[in-house]
Amino acid sequence: xxxxxxLFLFLVSLTVVLLINVTATASDYIxxxxxxxxxxxxxxxxxFHPQQxxxxxxxxxxxxxxxxxxxxxxxxxxxxxxxxxxxxxVAQGESTSYSYLLYxxxxxxxxxxxxxxxxxxxxxxxxxxxxxxxxxxxPSQFPVTFAVAGDLGQTGWTESTLDHIDRCKYDVHMLPxxxxxxxxxxxxxxxxxxxxxxxxxxxxxxxxxxxxxxxNIPLFKEGFASYNARWKMPYEESGSSSNLYYSFDVAxxxxxxxxxxxxxxxxxxxxxxxxxxxxxxxRERAPWLLALFHVPWYNSNEAHQGEGDNMMASMEPLLYxxxxxxxxxxxxxxYERSQRxxxxxxxxxxxxxxxIGDGGNREGLAHKFKNQQPEWSVxxxxxxxxxxxxxxxxxxxxxxxxxxxxxxxVRSDQVWITTLRSSxxxxxxxxxxxxxxxxP
Length: 440
Ligand SMILES: *[C@@H]1O[C@H](CO)[C@@H](O)[C@H](O)[C@H]1NC(C)=O
Ligand SMILES: *[C@@H]1O[C@H](CO)[C@@H](O)[C@H](O)[C@H]1NC(C)=O
Ligand SMILES: [Fe+2]
Prior knowledge:
Number of strands: 24
Distance between the termini: 87 Å
Keywords: Glycoprotein, Hydrolase, Signal, Zinc
Protein name: Purple acid phosphatase
InterPro entries: Calcineurin-like_PHP, Metallo-depent_PP-like, MPP_PAP, PAPs-like, PAPs_C, PAPs_N, Purple_acid_Pase-like_N
Number of domains: 2
Helix content: 10-25%
CATH superfamily of the largest domain: Metallo-dependent phosphatases
Strand content: 25-35%
CATH architecture of the largest domain: 4-Layer Sandwich
Shape: globular
Bound molecules: 2-acetamido-2-deoxy-beta-D-glucopyranose, fe (ii) ion
Largest sheet: 8 strands, mixed
CATH topology of the largest domain: Purple Acid Phosphatase, chain A, domain 2
Radius of gyration: 23 Å
Cofactor: Fe cation; Zn(2+)
């Protein structure tokens, strides 16, 4: 009997060791089933009650507070201060609304507050009454941490992604497109707004558009009407004439938000704006340069192959010359990270491209990767999750990817990234950049 028991214990422990190993390696990872679309019971609110509160950066030391009320007479004022219940400042904003087929939106308020102290908790009230919210603004110096998740939607997996992000320490949320998956059904924009409010009212959410924001009806309704009305970003503050592309600064990082679904050829407004924006960046003050847009340029998944090619042909030389360090994209519902890459090949002076379109939408994951992993592709996996980019100082940043299935602190992929500036690439390219910027 005794030897058998020993053998049994040995087999049990071996199984445990093997199981631990299986969950730790990406290629053997067992993928979970999809989760249900969330149901939101209709809960009528007091007509001035602020709904769907979210904040976004609005130029140096300023924050835009956005919320919706059922009542059209609710004022667009925000009272705020640095102690709970004590509001020693007040700001007046603007409002908008839109109609879409039979749907009429509530009153959408946009109120910019500031100047604000950096890295400070503020308490605020929307419309001068109702519940108190609070947020922490970003620091003015490194370190600074960005949470990144694209293609969110509103399913059980979205909830899980948001829950994970809520448990990490971060300063700004960045979303490379595909927010609500409303897809013409406008009520879904409202339920999405309510779903993200706990996070989006506490940290700035900086978003760019995806295909699910378009909602155009040929000859009848132009694209992005709901998105532009609800998710106003600091485009005016960054010299852009469109909410579909803009830039912002956090600590020593300059972040460029581009539009995959608006014109991007070299005669387009977006391209001219991009050139002007890059020309303004002082790399002494902003050693980190990041770019976000929806459709990835480097993608070895079978899904959405080639969709980013035209934009890449137009804009990659400019981003390369400018020395963009990291590009974050969505659209493909999976995770993939590249080497530094340019023009289809690994290049020590190119950008690290990361596809992070695995926030949790109802369409599910993009399971099929091309059989042959390209030489530039370092890590790829179809699982829901989010990323964290912690910029430690002017030369080093730490990127990590967190699966929803693991505990938040578990990092399934991670890498240290150093700036192109510190490797001498920027100096090398300055001539090329000048040529593009001063060209026609
Ligand atoms: C765990 O997996 C790695 C790589 O797949 C392998 O090299 C290693 O031997 C495994 N360890 C155990 C304890 O099975
Ligand atoms: C930046 O951070 C990295 C990683 O922690 C460290 O090795 C490096 O010395 C730091 N550089 C400076 C200039 O502080
Ligand atoms: Fe998409």
